[in-house]
Structure to design on (92 residues):
């Protein structure tokens, strides 16, 4: 689903708001999520999922084309864990 499709679906369910207002709200939600994750906070959406940042350590990898060993620097990654309700909805 693209962001424009999400805006369209929400606008069909909430007819009192314009698409521009809905887009602004969705952008604000995403911005709040980005800000929280960048601070290292956990996001918990009950009935949907949890998002948290995990630190990946530095590691040595191999270029598959040349076989050359390269160092991959440490980095932060988002860990997504779906809730039981979402898992049940997907697997019914």
């Amino acid at each position: 689903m693209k962001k424009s499709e999400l805006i369209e679906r929400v606008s069909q369910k909430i007819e009192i708001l314009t698409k521009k207002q809905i887009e602004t709200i969705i952008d604000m939600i995403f911005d709040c999520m980005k800000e929280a994750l960048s601070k290292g906070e956990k996001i918990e959406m009950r009935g949907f999922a949890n998002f948290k940042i995990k630190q990946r350590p530095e590691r040595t990898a191999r270029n598959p084309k040349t076989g050359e060993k390269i160092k991959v620097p440490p980095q932060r990654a988002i860990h997504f864990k779906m809730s039981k309700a979402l898992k049940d909805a997907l697997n019914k």
Observations:
- The chain has a mean pLDDT of 93.
- Residues 42-92 form a domain with the HU Protein; Chain A fold (CATH 4.10.520.10).
